[in-house]
Amino acid sequence: FDNPDVRDHIKTVLLSHQHQIRTLRFRAPTLFALGRSLVPQFRDLRTLELSLPSESDLPPDKYDNPALRHLSLTFHDRPQDVVFSRGLESLVLRQVDYLNLSLFQALSSCADSLKKLSIRSGAKMVGIPDTISFPRLEELRLQLWVSRTAENVLHAILGPPSMSGIIRTTLWIEELGLVDKLLNFLLPSADALRATATTTVEIESRKSLPTWIEYTRGNRSLQLGLRAAGSDLHFERYRDKLQALNRRLQDPVTSVTILSYKPADMKQLRAFYSSDVQKLIIVLGRPNSQLPIELIDAAIGKRRADHGSGWTFPALRQLTITFNPSYADSVALAAYVDARQAELQAIGYRGLDELVFVHCSFDGINCLDLANMPGPKGVTLKEAPDMY
User: What pTM was computed for the model?
Assistant: First the structure.
């Protein structure tokens, strides 16, 4: 498309069908000028996708076609002043490197019609925008890597209690105070506190990356990337904050999922030791030659003396393990679970009801007929389809 003659030909062909075309997608920044030149002439256009080039001298952009309902913009530089259609229903803004008040002023023009809003940005917010009411907003997705920006954007967007959405941001230890404000997204009203929806948690641990923790409540999700979560002191501070968060939710965390690469990753669970958790899912992030019993013990065994007494998850009912194409020693696993069951039942707990396996093999045999496997006493063995 670097050839001007080719672009002119494409433009001519598109214009010859301007009354029939309802969707235009120009995903390459090199095609932005062509796409923008066509937009004013397609008055019946309903869907538009553009990728803006890295230029600082672009004039203000108008996306105010009366029929336009769905708009997706990818920025490769700070966005210029924009104008949105008042009837816009879906707006996706990617790679926004500069969040300022003018962008939110533009959003106010389509606030009454917008049903879906998605913003992805790694930038700091310049200024604090006024709150804008979006009465018809059905879905909100924010990926904002600066936690203070996430706080300010959430302050600016007021949607109905029925709105679904995902908020994804990262936090340093010294920013834990923002968790309480971000939690307002999961609790949009007093009725949410009385809701019966359970709270689930997902943890993803990777070297040099944040430890991702996801809280899901009803149709809303809050994803927090906890940075520098390595030392015991950090885990203690995270645990204190997350326990306070659980008390505010007034619903115990009942399900925890952890993506693990080695037994040492199980330390991420220290922030969630609880007698309320009933379901634990362990997903091995890379193939292992063998499923180590040490990994299971680190997850559901007894706490180390320096992390409190008792069991980590004494009320656990279901343990699901995904390890592909790993190998497990069925006899050793059954012996470990049997010993755990006996000790927990001796102090009044019921113990595990189910062990669920995804993509596994025992003693070199693919886990297809668990009924014939030597399993723990009183525990049902199940094979589940691929969950991830």
Answer: 0.73
